[in-house]
Predict the 3D structure of the following.
Amino acid sequence: MGIVSVTNLKKTYGDFTAVDGISFEINEGEIFGLLGPNGAGKTSTINMIIGLSRPAAGEILVDGIDVRTQLKKAQAIMGIVPDESNLYNEMDGFENLCFCASLYGMRKEEREAKAVRLLEQFRLKEAGKRPFKAYSKGMRRKLTIAAALIHSPRILFLDEPTTGIDVESARQIREMIAGLKKQGTTVLLTTHYIEEAERLCDSIAFIVKGKIVASGSVPELMQSVSHGHAIQLVTDKNVESLAAELQGRFEGSRVEIRPDRSLVLVSERRIPLLPVMEFFDKKGIAVYEARELRRSLEDVFIRLTGIESAVLKKEKEKGGGGR
Amino acid sequence: MKGWIAFLNILKKDVKTYYLKPPNISWGIIFPLSWTLMQLIRTPGGSILQLLPGLISMSVLFGTTSMLAVTITFERSGRSFDRLLLAPISLSTMVLAKIMGAVLFGVFNSFVPVIFAAFFVNLSAVNWALVLPAVFLIAATSTLMGLLIAVSAKQVFEAQTFSNFFRFPMLFLCGLFVPLSSVPIFLRPLSYCLPLTYGTDILNGAIIGAGTLSPLLCFGVLIAFALALFLLCRHNINRKWIM
Ligand SMILES: Nc1ncnc2c1ncn2[C@@H]1O[C@H](COP(=O)(O)OP(=O)(O)OP(=O)(O)O)[C@@H](O)[C@H]1O
Ligand SMILES: [Mg+2]
């Protein structure tokens, strides 16, 4: 059994069902991504697991401990980074970390040593002496993560750790998450950024409108959608008129013309590049660029959820630190 | 042990970030002091000793009821209160730590009129062994009442308004300014439902020998009030703040 095991979890707010009977399992030591658009129910799900909100139905086990009956015992091994920083504005970085450590019963020397180490690790050594309210968004997020790690939790919950912060801080945070995995910490992370999930996560669950529409390891998810192959070509002339001929020449293929006028040849079987180049060469058309398109998790997501990539793009713009 | 470390550090943090802030300290000194002066001016020639029980009670009441209500509502709106709910400490430990800061602040407030009075009258006849625990229990019950209000309030200002709504009627019903025997008979049952009535009675007895009830009974009732309020607060926090 996984370190986190969620069965038929449900959350309602009045008549509205925010989380609609989801189940998933997180294995010890893996990075698990909960991926979905705004309002999908990601935060609601995390809040139920960590004990900030009560499920309407369902079971949650963390390291075999039933969260409904032994919440405090389960909380001792959890580290939590909420979607908005919730540290104390009046205290400086170092004091914030030490205070959080004390909530987990750590002794003074132990707290201070760990706080110093984390401030260094997150490149906040200087900022450690400044009050939290003077921090930039990226610094706030980093200190919030440091605070969640102060008691060396076995499982870390990160709710949109890279949303809305500067690119450099986002990069550092992703690096840190990858580092945690090496040390054996389990991570549950929610995000809108598909590339981020693809790069970091071992397993992913797509959540839409409170339901998990697909889940599995990244390769499994890629396979689950039979997507075939695609070649993209950039030519010197308009080749739209050649589409039919091209499709006839390569059986089972389909031609798409992209808005940037490039041509994409999609097919179930892999089409070798050379005959395609020869085809154009014979027509006296120069090919500037030819490449095989790699299918990404984004395609899988779009195929499975029917959510347009434009919608996701919009969410990314709102956030910022995508790459 | 772990719970104890958390308890002490929550208390320390609250004292440092809220109660020891200059505005609060000066409020804690100026407010009781002006009450004292006002009473002295109003009843010239009146013995300050006669006024002392009322002044102590009032300083404690005003020092505690809104303090915790405001700080907790503030922490809730900034979401830092979630940290306490997410920590592996029992709800009881957390609630106790939170109220202890306000209780200590209230006790500190009560010293102001006492020190002031010490300049004018001889306090050697006062039974401090009764005064101190009584002050502590008055502080505890009024802090808990403030907390109960905070659990029902959504905003800082709401918490403040609510606590005034309770505080002022209480002052007139608890036998501080109007002796219980002069409280209208139909309101008197209400007086006996207020913890402050019992606290005031102990103070009246210990300072000027004018208690009407047995101190033992009063302490018993105060402790029962504190316990009941504590359980009620804990229950409400658990029910309303973990949705
Ligand atoms: N306290 C609440 N009361 C009523 N509705 C709520 C409450 N919290 C969340 N919701 C609703 O439940 C749904 C799921 O919200 P949730 O915050 O879990 O989504 P999310 O996936 O975390 O979204 P985001 O990406 O915007 O953070 C949303 O439609 C939201 O409006
Ligand atoms: Mg969210």
Notes: Residues 228-292 of chain A form a domain with the Alpha-Beta Plaits fold (CATH 3.30.70.100). Chain A is about 35% helix and 25% strand.
